Amino acid sequence: MGTTEILGYIGALIVGLVLGLIGGGGSILTVPLLVYLLGYNPVIATAYSLFVVGTSSMVGTYQKHKKGLVDFKTGLAFSFPSFLAVYLTRRYLVQSIPDTLFSFGDFSLTKNMGIMIFFAIIMIIASYSMIKKDKPQELLATKQSYYKTFIQGLTIGTVTGLIGAGGGFLYVPALVIWAKIPMKKAVGTSLIIVTINSLIGFIGDVQTIDIEWTFLLAFTVISIVGIVIGVFLSKFISGKKLKTSFGYFVLIMAVYIIYKELK
To answer: Which residue ranges run through the membrane (predicted)?
Structure first.
């Protein structure tokens, strides 16, 4: 086992620790780790990220369920338009993106560059949601019409399908505002959606790319070990302070990715 592979597995452990400590952010670390450290192209990296995040979120769902913080009915109902969009995005849209998006003089924006830059933009949005101070949630007087939720679910699913992310940072506020679920239960409920979306999205990839199952399963198992450790450590660490610190780290990583891709 080479040094790079060992560092990759250490990274997998850190991914799990982050998921266990703050309940999100797995894909934010997984994709750059696979691309910049282990040398995978972004399409494969985002596919692997879907599997890792989906499997890890399944473990997280079980842990939240034991604490009574999962609304299965709402989570399953909300997941339908999302997983439909994720599957179609991974199965057809990602594969149909041209290798060169556009050229301007000597500069060409390639498919791989475009995916990573888009990923960095989503990271910036995620970092803002982590850094900002939480405010009391104002719930709508009535639930939103389902057709609007369906359209928004399709939109979020398409975004998460493109970047290979679970999308928890998008689904949590959606559940709070649209489904009127309390914040703690929204976090647990979002894990159902993330699990279904990620794994179904990955199924779309299995049909189009070759998967290194030995590496992927080992990476995932180590991440799950990290989650178990992270959940244990979360009892002793301030989640709010950790979330803010991680938000700044994500922001720095996003700027680095944009610099790396455009230099």
So the answer is: 7-37, 43-62, 74-93, 113-131, 151-174, 186-206, 213-233, 245-262
Question: Rounded to whole angstroms, how far apart are CA atoms 149 and 156?
Answer: 10
Residue 136 CB neighbour total at 10 angstroms: 6
pTM for the model stands at 0.77
CA angle, 132 as apex, 128 and 136 as ends, to 5°? 130
Domain residue extents for the chain? 3-262
pLDDT in tens, 46-103: 889 889 988 988 888 888 888 888 888 888 877 888 888 888 888 888 888 888 888 8
137 φ, ψ to 5°?
Answer: -80, 130
| Residue 111, Cβ density class (10 Å: 0-12 exposed, 13-18 middle, ≥19 buried) | middle
Assign 127 to helix, strand or coil.
helix
